[in-house]
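Researcher: Re-running this chain for the archive, since the previous output was lost when a drive failed. Same request as before.
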Amino acid sequence: MLKLMLTIFLLSASVLAFAQNSLTLKNAIEVALQNNFQIQITQLQSAQAKINNTWGQAGRYPSISLAMSQGNNISDQSKNPTSFIQALLISNSVQGGLDLNWTLFNGFAVKANKNRLAQVQEQSEGNAAVVIENTIQALILSYYNVQIQESKLELLRDVLQTSKNKYDYNKLKTEIGTSVSSDLLQFQNQVLIDSASLMLQEIAHRNARRNLNIIMGAESEQNYELADVLMDDFPSYDYSDLQSKMESNNQNIKNQYINEEIFRQDVLIAKSSMFPVISFNAGASGNSSSYRIADFPSQQGANLNYYGNFSLSFNVFNGGRVKRAIQSADIQTKINGLQITELKQTLNRDLIRAHELYEMRKKVYALNTESASVALKNLEIAQEKYDRGIINSFNFRDINITYLNTGIASLESLYNLVDAKTDLIRLTGGLLQESASE
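Model: Regenerated structure tokens:
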């Protein structure tokens, strides 16, 4: 998993395209992987877990300590009639020691601790992968949402332009006396309504861009052109194939299996307390001192001691704490096993729902696309009929509104379909794989 995430980060070499006012979905993902704050946090947490994953942290190696001290003492007894030596007494000393402590055997706890540290590191990387996966999903949806909002904006501009054209046409007819003022007022009202809708849509479009920038970790007002076209690849998926991919690639399931391994190591660590502990302690200590009385020559002294000791300790009875710790670790392992089973059932349910929703939204999108196409043709016919006086301004407005509504419905159903497809890919663990292969 760490190699996979490093591969993803190496793709960031092309993020400069983002600064050139052109942004593809691939560029957007690369920028997010590099700048998203939550991803940066999880990457630092993974680095922290990697630092701790060492044999030294697990307790394999000895601990060595060095201590030194220096003392000085001056005692003026020259005016002390009760002192045996009535003179200035000066003493100096230096003490030092080197100590080594090494646990030679503690019931295989060192190996269990090292395995646990490795699993904790893998767990941290798995959590980072989930954050990356969720970020990629949010970014894909945000990227296409910007495009959807842009398409809505163009649709509203088209509707507004149609209303303006009809308003100008009727204004001219009114001025030459061949049209009634009610049609002019009707189209003037339509222009005002459509203008207001357009302004609201412009706000929605700007907010969509801001949301995309936030996910990428860019400045909220950063502007660019989206280079990719709206997604149009919506294949049919076989459910059994999706289920197989989910069980082998879903990151949440992988993380739960890592938890299971951590709990197994906890059991071994708890059982290690049932074995004796053999330790070795060795070191050396030395002392050098000098003593001087008044003006007499100082007296020097030094000593050096070495020691090496073995110790064996065995926990005979401690109120059943060891036994309870083993039982608790065993129970936690069983709990995690049940959680894995429950997670698989939940994900299978979610996969069934996501698959059905995806297939249903494909059909809805196809219907809405066809409806929008029919509405466009109907609007073209209505324009001819209105110009020939077959329909009035109210009929024309109804047809224009139908064209607008079907267009919006088609765009929203496309976004919903992209959402459903992205969710399917996430559940089957495909988001990280696709990002790494691009």
